[in-house]
Design brief:
about 170 residues, alpha+beta, two-stranded antiparallel ribbon, about 30% helix, globular
């Protein structure tokens, strides 16, 4: 079940914006371990953030976006997964599934001080929580502005990140 706080955030968002919906950002490995099923791409329903990237071989274990309106049969699994594993982040956005994926993909890799590239696991609520705490300047918060709001559980507490508040 979609958490009540996510639905309330969506209602508030819709008061100021014509459209808005909830997408689930899901850790593919956590989903597979919880449900026994691997996520696969489905047009306008499920998309891998690794699609079209050099990490495509890791797609099964990596980040996936799921459109809850089109994937109502998965909502219960996602609600359960969120409670038992660090594997779900709820995004409130006006973007389509594929457009939201396009906005998130540039944030998959970061440049380390020694010029090497590293994968930034922002789809893990524990990592997202830490990023929110340490990213303080406008440039480092660009990831958070890719959606209106991010909701997730960390150590049993629900958190919301909203860097796009216009009201």
């Amino acid at each position: 079940m979609t958490p009540a706080s996510v639905n309330e955030q969506l209602r508030k968002y819709r008061r100021f914006h014509y459209s808005g919906h909830v997408l689930a950002l899901v850790d593919g490995l956590q989903y597979q371990q919880h449900t026994g099923q691997q996520l696969t791409s489905e047009d306008d329903v499920v998309v891998s953030l690794f699609a079209g990237t050099k990490e495509i071989a890791l797609a099964h274990a990596g980040p996936w976006l799921i459109d809850l309106k089109a994937a109502r049969d998965r909502i219960a699994d996602l609600g359960e997964l969120e409670q038992v594993r660090p594997g779900v982040i709820w995004l409130i956005t006006s973007e389509s599934l594929e457009r939201q994926a396009e906005k998130l993909r540039p944030h998959l890799d970061i440049r380390l001080p020694d010029r090497r590239s590293a994968l930034l696991r922002f789809w893990d609520p524990r990592v997202l929580h830490a990023l929110n705490a340490i990213c303080q300047d406008k440039a480092s918060r660009a990831l958070f502005r890719t959606a209106h709001a991010w909701q997730y559980l960390n150590e049993g507490q629900r958190f919301t990140i909203n860097d796009n508040a216009t009201h």
